[in-house]
Write a structure and sequence with these properties.
Blueprint lengths: L16 E3 L5 E3 L2 H13 L13 H4 L40 H8 L7 E4 L5 H17 L4 E5 L18 H10 L8 E6 L9 E6 L7
Parallel strand pairs: 3-4
Antiparallel strand pairs: 1-2, 4-6, 5-6
Length: 213
């Protein structure tokens, strides 16, 4: 079997002479030349593997690479004016349930209260049952307009619970009057005229007791 040889370099013609130990030169014999010719013909050149293409995403810039492109010019706009919110008036138009003429006379101080309860200086725990008794008593007596004095929020005289702040009763009384069991016996609640106490008192206009008529 003929031997096959692989070469990593181009084949060249052998020199026509060989070097011996004594440096003498001689020509290749015919057999040697024929052998070399067969070696050349049987040689198979090495095939180089194709280069693996680089993935497109690897060619992109890394995230941590600083972008050296110049920034676009920007302008500073003048500060915008803050939007104006229109608040409703503190005392809106009341939901009128009583007669309009009687309501106008009452708010102008032309109607005289038929009974008065002064809660100024009482705690919430003391004032609630007193107010309930007052409303029930005058409702059964078929009185229509009564006056409840809450005070304007000054220091309470008979304060047994000092944790209550000033003006608590003034804020709480209208809430009581708008809730059961007061609500069913009351037609209208409104701040009193100045001659009857102003913001420190309340007009309470009771419903008519049909059982008395």
């Amino acid at each position: 079997m003929e031997a096959r040889y692989l070469y990593y370099f181009p084949l060249r013609e052998p020199c026509c002479c060989l070097h011996t130990n004594d440096m003498a030169r001689r020509k290749l014999s015919k057999d040697e030349q024929d052998l070399w010719k067969k070696v050349k013909e049987s040689a198979v050149p090495l095939s180089r593997p194709k280069a693996t293409p680089i993935a497109p995403q690897l060619l992109k810039k890394k995230d941590n690479v600083q972008d050296t492109r110049p920034l676009k010019a920007f302008q500073i706009r003048p500060a915008s004016k803050p939007s104006t919110i229109t608040l409703p008036p503190p005392h809106g138009k009341p939901d009128l349930k009583m007669d309009q003429k009687a309501f106008v006379r009452m708010t102008r101080g032309r109607l005289e209260p038929e009974a008065t309860l002064d809660l100024h200086g009482y705690t919430l725990a003391q004032a609630h049952p007193l107010l309930l008794q007052f409303i029930q008593r005058n409702y059964h007596a078929n009185r229509r307009l009564v006056l409840v004095i809450t005070g304007k929020g000054g220091k309470q005289k008979h304060l047994s619970d000092e944790t209550e702040g000033y003006g608590v009763l003034r804020k709480q009384a209208p809430l009581w009057l708008a809730s059961p069991p007061f609500k069913s016996k009351i037609l209208q609640v409104h701040e009193a005229h100045l001659k009857h106490g102003g913001s420190g008192a309340l007009y309470v206009y009771l419903t008519r007791n049909r059982a008395k008529t």
